[in-house]
Write a structure and sequence with these properties.
The chain is built from 14 helices and 12 strands. It has about 375 residues and is an alpha/beta fold. The chain has a 6-stranded mixed β-sheet, sandwiched between helices.
């Protein structure tokens, strides 16, 4: 399961967003720094509009969506890379995540204290980037010292590592994330082995007030965040964390109706979860039978036997072939029997690369 860390300065709405994501009021959303000390963890379903129609086709009431694990991490302050505030714990918690959702305050409210005294998304983003970059800088400098000793003995891999580190050092020393450094495939492989905080894929959640939801681009703070995200090749998702936390109290149809009244097409939480899922290059394949309909998470480019292994290692070990039909074709056919009669079911072998929305039955023998 992928794990996404929710980070940001204190009092930007991290815990409120976590409550909305998990549909639980388990995180303490208080108006003071470090309301979250131990990271809260929640497992959140990935919204997937295909599951209910598929369940009707196979006549089951049991639906199991794919999931994302979200971690609500303590707020960061200046000096975190040197242990200020809860810096050491903050950095350790980020290191354990696959992706980062950086919540950026884009609303004005005199009742909610800002740790820096004013709302300034560019400054806030730079504060976090600099602290993470400083932590990475210390890490790669230590790694370079070790690689130099090895390289003196003629180790080619150590020399290659030093070349990559030197490229990263240039960016990190300027307070820029390592993910902004252009590397080829071989260099990226080396960089992954450094386990740097600033290489983690990042989504910027621009936290606005309810009034800005219908047209977030009219908010100058959102435009600033989107500009920064675009420069990094990252995503920016405008969201009203407070509204989303309140919406979880409503029934799904009431929630959709209220969003329409606000002029908003979909829940920001749904868009954020889907963005986090896409961010790591993941996709879903589906299994469907009388017992259940389920979405399974795999990296894009996964071959059929490895996808089978996500269900159970025995299925991968004894893989014979995969019986595959696309979701759209199965829904149009309205049943497996009709899909088979129409020649829509395909038998695929070990080299088949799974596609988004494949509905699969694996044949195996152990």
């Amino acid at each position: 399961m992928l794990r996404a860390g929710i980070v940001g300065l204190p009092n930007v709405g991290k815990s409120t967003l976590f409550n909305a994501l998990t549909a639980q009021a388990t995180a303490l959303a208080a108006n003071y720094p470090f309301a979250t000390i131990e990271p809260n963890i929640g497992v959140v379903p990935v919204p997937d509009e295909r599951l209910e129609p598929l369940a009707r086709v196979v006549k089951t009431t049991t639906i199991v969506p794919a999931t994302v694990e979200f971690v609500d991490i303590a707020g960061l302050v200046r000096g975190a890379s040197k242990g200020e505030g809860l810096g050491n714990q903050f950095l350790a918690n980020i290191r354990e995540t696959d992706a980062v959702i950086q919540v950026v305050r884009c609303f004005e409210d005199e009742q909610v204290h800002h740790v820096e005294g004013s709302v300034d998304p560019r400054r806030d983003i730079e504060t976090i980037q600099i602290e993470l970059a400083l932590a990475d800088l210390a890490s790669v400098e230590r790694r370079r010292e070790r690689a130099q000793k090895t390289a003196k003995g003629g180790d080619k891999s150590a020399r290659a590592e030093i070349e990559v580190i030197d490229k990263l050092l240039t960016a990190l020393s300027e307070g820029k994330p390592a993910r902004t450094v252009e590397l080829d495939d071989a260099e990226r492989q080396i960089a992954r082995g450094l386990f740097l905080l600033t290489t983690k894929p990042t989504i910027y959640a621009a936290n606005v007030d309810e009034a800005a939801l219908a047209d977030p681009e009219a908010n100058p703070h959102v435009r600033t965040v989107r500009e920064i995200a675009a420069a990094e090749g990252a995503e920016c998702v405008p969201i009203c964390a407070q509204l989303e936390a309140e919406l979880v109290e409503l029934a799904p149809d009431e929630r959709a109706s209220y969003l329409r009244e606000l002029g908003v097409g979909s829940s920001g939480v749904d868009r954020l979860i889907k963005s986090a899922y896409r961010l790591l290059g993941l996709m879903s394949f589906l299994t469907a039978g009388e017992k259940e309909v389920r979405a399974w998470t795999i990296p894009r480019g996964t071959r059929a036997p490895q996808a089978a292994g996500v269900i159970h290692s025995d299925i991968e070990r004894g893989f014979i072939r995969a019986e595959v039909v696309s979701y759209d074709e199965l829904i149009r056919a309205s049943s497996y029997a009709a899909a088979r009669e129409q020649g829509l079911l395909r038998l695929e072998g070990k080299e088949y690369v799974m596609q988004e929305g494949d509905v699969v039955h694996f044949r195996f023998n152990v």
